[in-house]
Amino acid sequence: MQNSSPSPVNIREVWSHNLESEISLIRALIDDFPFVAMDTEFPGVTIRVLFPSPVTLSHLNYQTLRANVDLLHMIQLGLAFSDEKGTLPVIEGKPSVWQFNFKEFDLENDIYDPESIKLLRNHGIDLYKHQTHGVDANRFAELLMSSGVVLNDSVVWITFHGGYDFGYLLKCLTASKLPETLEGFAELSKTFFPVYYDVKHLMRYCPGQAFHGGLNKLSDALAVERVGICHQAGSDALVTLKCFLELLEKKYVSLPLEKYAGVLYGTGDDYLQMLKV
């Protein structure tokens, strides 16, 4: 394993047959590459929660998130690692990111948002291959728990509008439903991911810039080049990582950066102080 980053970047596909060997690679590199950007792909949002009494938007967003994550299954998880300079780990001669393909989603029997599934299939995701060759979520959780990637306050997690990403990964790691309250979700997130930043949240604190919209719009504004296929988790995780690093390198974000830690856009803004305790 080397530390230089020639191009092009390789998205390492992880299926059942190579799960353990790929997690072993990650276990060996996490100390040197402690910045971890993540993205998930899932079957869309199928439930909208309505509350009869007034609640904050963050509470309402979380209850919608919780209802969907509890019911549905993660399809892909992308993880992109780097050091503080943005250097990616080099595996077999190529800078690499990881894309885990899970088997739990059943196209024939599970509910899903048809447009979301159409989008994923149009972008190359083979859902039948996932069912036959995909990673078992429980086995993945066991391996990731002992990898040093989670429950480690030396690791910096990076997301983009990451509530669902954290929700699906926490469901996987705990093998249980999400906490009933936003406060419980915040505490659980802080336990497994002690330091994290949501790039969508950071966009709000870039004086003089008019950043808006989704990940693709931000990457275009920052001239971040995509590697791989849009709407696949490995590619989106890498774009998220590059956008985060670009915001810091160009000094777009008001410092100190630490004051924006521990907030997931749309689900955590009301609890900034609680998360920082």
Automatic annotation (TrEMBL):
Q: Identify the enzyme class.
A: hydrolase
Cellular localization per UniProt: Cytoplasm; Nucleus
A GO molecular function held by the record = RNA binding
Q: Which reaction is recorded as catalysed by this protein?
A: Exonucleolytic cleavage of poly(A) to 5'-AMP
Cofactors named for this entry: a divalent metal cation
Q: What does the function comment of this entry state?
A: Ubiquitous transcription factor required for a diverse set of processes. It is a component of the CCR4 complex involved in the control of gene expression.
The name this protein carries in UniProt is: poly(A)-specific ribonuclease
Provenance organism: Rhynchospora tenuis
- High-level lineage: Eukaryota, Viridiplantae, Streptophyta, Embryophyta, Tracheophyta
